[in-house]
Design brief:
Three copies of one chain form a homotrimer.
Chain A lengths: L2 E6 L7 H12 L4 E6 L7 H9 L10 E5 L10 E6 L4 E5 L11 E6 L15 H14 L23 E3 L2 E9 L5 E6 L9 E6 L2 E6 L15 E4 L4 E5 L5 H5 L6 E5 L14
Parallel strand pairs in A: 1-2, 1-3, 3-5
Antiparallel strand pairs in A: 4-5, 4-6, 7-8, 8-9, 8-14, 9-13, 10-11, 10-14, 12-13
Amino acid sequence: MPLLTLLTDFGLDDWYVAAVKGVVLRSASGAQIVDISHQVPPGDVETAAFLLAAPFPTFPPGTVHLAVVDPGVGSDRRLLAARTHDASWLVAPDNGLLTCLLPEVDSLRSVERTDLFLSGPGRTFHGRDRFAPIAAALLRGEPWDSLGPVIGDPVRLAIAPPRREPGLLTGRVAHVDRYGNLVTDLPWSWLPAGPCRVEVASHTTASHATDRRVTHYAEIPPGEAAFLPGSLATVELSMNGENLACRWHVGRGARVQIATHFSPQATMKPVRG
Amino acid sequence: MPLLTLLTDFGLDDWYVAAVKGVVLRSASGAQIVDISHQVPPGDVETAAFLLAAPFPTFPPGTVHLAVVDPGVGSDRRLLAARTHDASWLVAPDNGLLTCLLPEVDSLRSVERTDLFLSGPGRTFHGRDRFAPIAAALLRGEPWDSLGPVIGDPVRLAIAPPRREPGLLTGRVAHVDRYGNLVTDLPWSWLPAGPCRVEVASHTTASHATDRRVTHYAEIPPGEAAFLPGSLATVELSMNGENLACRWHVGRGARVQIATHFSPQATMKPVRG
Amino acid sequence: MPLLTLLTDFGLDDWYVAAVKGVVLRSASGAQIVDISHQVPPGDVETAAFLLAAPFPTFPPGTVHLAVVDPGVGSDRRLLAARTHDASWLVAPDNGLLTCLLPEVDSLRSVERTDLFLSGPGRTFHGRDRFAPIAAALLRGEPWDSLGPVIGDPVRLAIAPPRREPGLLTGRVAHVDRYGNLVTDLPWSWLPAGPCRVEVASHTTASHATDRRVTHYAEIPPGEAAFLPGSLATVELSMNGENLACRWHVGRGARVQIATHFSPQATMKPVRG
């Protein structure tokens, strides 16, 4: 049975998600649909790019992943479809939404099969009128070559990659989850075995730091922050049963620095700068 | 595979939606279920009527649409089932919830098959005890004639239809979506090609207007409002990347007037009355 | 087709729910998944225990119920699987989450099949790495005996059961729903036919009471509170179209007392203490 995942900023109060699913099921009967989220902040392509990529490896080959966060709907921005190395499929507007998954992409096309599209009404709901029919075509096994020309210049979000210097790793908070965990973009494998000090700072807050390394949340002493290997193999900062993002007043984009030659004798406790 | 859509005011924090699905799947094994929304404000039949009708055309014939927003649960209000012209099915309490879809209805019955119903406990959860079994019966292909007597007097919501006079269209904001778009009930096809001025006012706010006509959101200049053909073929008012409903402080039910003989030379800019 | 229900505190904004589903569908292709809720307050095992048990009886035998509210993730707390009397399955961390369903359990095992588990990354997401594979194994029909040793000492939440004395029933608010109904743990069958006075009090609020007994919400006079048999066969306190929990400022855990020898002549009206 073909599998479709769905990621949008349509919210859960409205009829938009159902309309997309109705169109898909009308022409790809029996497809199984899994929601990733529909709570992406309106128009927030960067959050969507993260949420699309994070669960991607868990889905079986052949899955079609449809993502519609599309402030340019109705303009001349392209509609993209991609085949990945594991023979899965991605469908999204050409606005950077695929950025985090481009390393997985084997072939990328600009979909121009107007015969697939529904004719409105309006130009405000391509999720229903264009993206859902494209996803349905892939679910039905429509030939990949037929969808449109191969392209090589998708829009990419300008997200600076993490940096690795002697004694210092520099990255950012890539995501804050419901528990207030700060998920960074710094690979856990970059950390040496010895003591490290992880410091987080944003434009609007003082910097906060911790040198406590743990393996799971329940190991963190009450009221303290610690860092641990997160579920995406990156450095994560957390508290135990409390919301660290609220406590430290930091969110996505905050700068993260890790001193890897840190001497714990000098400053044993987290420092509030 | 039979398809069921589900629309309720049960919310997403509770066990009520799952109980309805459990009962359906217990007696209509393999049915595919698509949520429309469970976030209808408690008891808000008018919102539910809109949300039920809007995605209806996207679903394939044969779909069963179950809607449970039912402040009269346990009283003697009737339980309705309807067959539509495209051989789909509607199931809802008789409280106006079907109002927007009555033009699609081919046959309407008051369901009185007590043999289908679960016997409580209590009279507070007919979603589980009566509506889910009715939906499951339709999914299983139970004979339509057997469900109960044909009726011709369903409860209808008193929603004034839009009016069309020379030089003036009068309607209302039928819906506000997550982006703050004001979806009106005025058919886009009523608009003449020439300049128009769209004015929105409610009891509690000053009136706001725009004479800017666009085809999609990205075409709207920052900070301005415009009108465009929406995804239900009606006039929609929007901003680009901002929430117009918040900006203008208007919500569902606000009056919308469109001056169709509007001379743009006289008042080029939106007027805050 | 095997059926899986899913209950977590992962929220609806994030990728965690999708990752669990992806892992399940990767190895139990075609399984049908029904969400109970993902909005359990972070780490609130007691709410989860209630939400897992309430819809349980509606699902068909053979269903796998997976619940992941797991503040101890990554520690040495056990991973439990249970077979119920109706041949359904439960999967959850050993932290009390199964408390309300233990009377349904026929056989309980500590799952130690490390060959099933995914190897990280990290120890923070056993929903993806361990619980989803266990659920998938049960959906595939993996032999029950093979999962791990039988145990008899699951963690149980310390929830005092309701008490029944001559003239007085004492229990608690077990749940507050979206409508503000106060769902108590007092069996409706304990109530005598005569007049009763139901009183609710918490540490932080004055006590409130009602002696009005009804059968459904629409029967309650505007602005008043009443009690009625709820959808779990317990005493429920409600208003008609208003939120009683907000009105009385009471929540889960508030004490409920029912005077069953109450003489309505003495105090006809609800008393605010």
